[in-house]
Amino acid sequence: MTPAKAAELLPQALAAQDWETARKALKRLLRADAGNASLHYNLGLVLRRLGEADAAEASFAAALKLAPDHLNALFEKAAAAMDAGRHEVAEAGFALYVGKAPQDADGWLNLARLRLRRDAAGEAEQAFDRVLALRPSDKDAAIGKAEAGLRLGRPEASSNLRALFAELPGERPRLLKAMSQGPRGTIPLSSLALTSKTQPAGAG
User: Fold this and answer.
1) What is the sign of the dihedral through the CA atoms of 108, 113, 118 and 122?
2) Is 202 among the domain residues?
3) Which of 174, 157, 96 lies closest to 110, judged by CA?
4) pLDDT computed for residue 189 by the predictor
5) What Cα–Cα distance (Å) separates residue 53 from each residue in 4, 116, 125, 183?
């Protein structure tokens, strides 16, 4: 495949969500332009969609080496570490990300979830507070903050969870688990799925 053919195929493959063809096209383009941070970043996004977390993380790292201020690559590198089950690496990555992008609620939410996962309830609560300051109607942050409060033994946590139980019927299984744990239980998370900052884009 020539670089010209790869550049022609790439947007078509992305539009069709044909991730395997997109991967081949991006790799061909990178052989011709290895110093292009955008190509490394987009390859990382495609690899995440293919479930290849380790390779995706390496692609985002390559993008960051070329463009250290590429905030989306920093976010996605942490997300890829989460995909691979490297929770400590992911938490450190999201902490670094929100230090550079403090107005990004998604970054704070992912950081809060990871902190809650390791039972750092106080730190998680602070991160959930940051989400709610930026996005007051975020139900995941509201539930997470209540879960953290329960873990910390805060007296208002149980009533907050009961209020959310009435307000959010779709979240009742998760809320019931949290309410049944008590302050010494392990706080369950409904999901650690992390959302990408962007969809893969054409070569740029």
Assistant:
1) positive
2) no
3) 96
4) 33
5) 28, 22, 28, 34
Q: Exposed/middle/buried for 204, CB within 10 Å: 0-12, 13-18, 19+? A: exposed
Task: Assess if residue 95 is contained within a domain.
Answer: no
Total domains, the chain: 2
pLDDT per position as a tens digit, 16-40: 999 999 999 999 999 999 999 999 9
Answer with the one of 52, 86, 120 that is the final residue of a domain.
86
Q: Is the pLDDT of residue 200 over 90?
A: no
Residue-wise burial string across 122-139, b where 16 or more C-beta atoms lie within 10 A, e elsewhere? ebbbbbbebbbebeeebe
Which of 167, 115, 107 shows the shortest CA–CA distance to 137? 167
Looking at per-residue pLDDT, the higher value among 151 and 107 belongs to 107
Closest of 33, 23, 25, 24 to residue 8, by C-alpha: 25
Q: Is 131 in the same domain as 80?
A: no
For residue 11, the domain's CATH number is 1.25.40.10
Residue-level pLDDT at 165: 59
197 — pLDDT class (breaks 50, 70, 90): low
Token pair of 101, please?
């992008």
**Rounded Cα gap, residues 194 and 23, in angstroms:** 21
Alpha-carbon span 129 to 108, nearest angstrom: 9
